Amino acid sequence: MTTVAAYAAPAAKAPLERTTIERRAVREFDVLIDIEFAGICHSDIHQAQEGWGKAIFPMVPGHEIAGVVSEVGPGVTKYQVGDRVGVGCMVDSCRVCENCLKGLEQYCLDGNTGTYNAIGRDGEPTYGGYSQKVVVDENFVVRIPDGIPLDVAAPLLCAGITTYSPLRHWNAGPGKKVAVVGFGGLGHLGVKIAHALGAEVTVLSQSLRKQDDGLKLGADHYYATSDPKTFEELRGTFDLILSTVSAPLDLGAFLSLLRTDGALVNVGAPEEPVSLNLFSVIGGRKTLAGSGIGGIQETQEMLDFCAEHGIGAEIELISASEINEAYDRVQSSDVRYRFVIDTATI
């Protein structure tokens, strides 16, 4: 085993603090990664504060991991020392269920193993990317193309695939009108990816304060949802609405913006329950759906797509000592658009 420095939450809602953790010895099919950058995802905060339910502590968050391979097990065939790689939201699955065999490991019927706040199939807790190194089975590692700098690539491992997967599944592309609700860590990448796919893209944000950024990053239109006229003007407009916000929405209002057979897909996960009048979906044969990250093959596809189209996250690079301040700023929507930790500072 290897002792490495990390930042961990010792208990729910407690400030994160520097500590050390043990990483397992490299097994036959394992890859040891020297982490260079780790993104801060809003889901890190939800879990560290037990907003989504009881969690495992001490917790080392972080599932947007970018780094370089420093050791491989004797059975590894996909990677070698020096490769630029990433790790996203999961580090294992059962690998034999119907979904895993289809490349949908994120929907493993036995439950995938989260990169942190989970118990692995070896019975040991998993620790995430706010650390210097991580050991992961090669089948849950992806290659980061040379065309994407590692710092702006890190958020693609969660925010990128979380938006790419539903956009592809619901066929965003030429001739399709796509709205992205929320223009933050997920939303700004949703806009970039939907634009690169060829869709006509609209941002639906609470205010217009980020309008210039939205238009610069690929949006064709930008509307404030705080203005009631927005819902009147855009009624029946969109083929697909991708909601990236982690707060409860008036689902009926947003469903009214869909065309017949349109879909409202949620990738943001509020801590509170939401309500729905079913007539909002019955009228117009509309779909209310959800989507969670993507499988390993699709994550690699997303990275290759982003490299081809010059897509990376818009980031604020921070030192590890600024993590707690960054958490506060994320909750205040005061980041443009993803905090990334320089793990050399841990």
Account of the 3D structure:
By secondary structure, the protein is an alpha/beta fold. It folds into two domains: 2-158 and 295-345, Quinone Oxidoreductase, Chain A, domain 1; 160-290, NAD(P)-binding Rossmann-like Domain (Rossmann fold). The chain contains eleven helices and 17 strands. It has helices spanning 42-48, 98-101, 150-153, 159-169, 185-197, 211-216, 228-233, 251-255, 279-282, 296-309, 323-331; strands spanning 2-8, 17-23, 30-39, 65-72, 84-87, 90-92, 113-114, 133-137, 142-143, 177-181, 200-205, 221-224, 238-243, 258-266, 287-290, 315-318, 338-342. The strands form four sheets. Strands 3, 4, 5, 8, 9, 16 and 17 form a seven-stranded mixed sheet that branches. A six-stranded parallel sheet has the order 12-11-10-13-14-15. Helix 5 links the parallel strand 10 (177-181) and strand 11 (200-205). It starts with a strand and ends with a strand. The model has no long low-confidence stretch (mean pLDDT 97).
**Count, helices:** 11
CATH class of the largest domain, anyone? Alpha Beta
Estimate the global geometry from the Cα principal axes: globular
**Radius of gyration using CA atoms only:** 20 Å
Number of strands: 17
Please tell me the overall pLDDT: 97
Multimeric organization: single chain
Number of domains: 2
Provide the low-confidence segments as ranges: none
CATH H-level superfamily of the largest domain:
Medium-chain alcohol dehydrogenases, catalytic domain
Report the sheet-strand fraction.
25-35%
The main sheet comes to:
7 strands, mixed
CATH architecture label of the largest domain: Alpha-Beta Complex
Instruction: Give the helix level as a range of percent.
Output: 10-25%
Q: What structural category characterises the helix and strand content?
A: alpha/beta
State the distance separating the first and last CA atoms.
19 Å
What is the element string, with H for helices and E for strands?
A: EEEHEEEHEEEHHEHEHEHEHEHEHEHE
CATH topology of the largest domain: Quinone Oxidoreductase, Chain A, domain 1
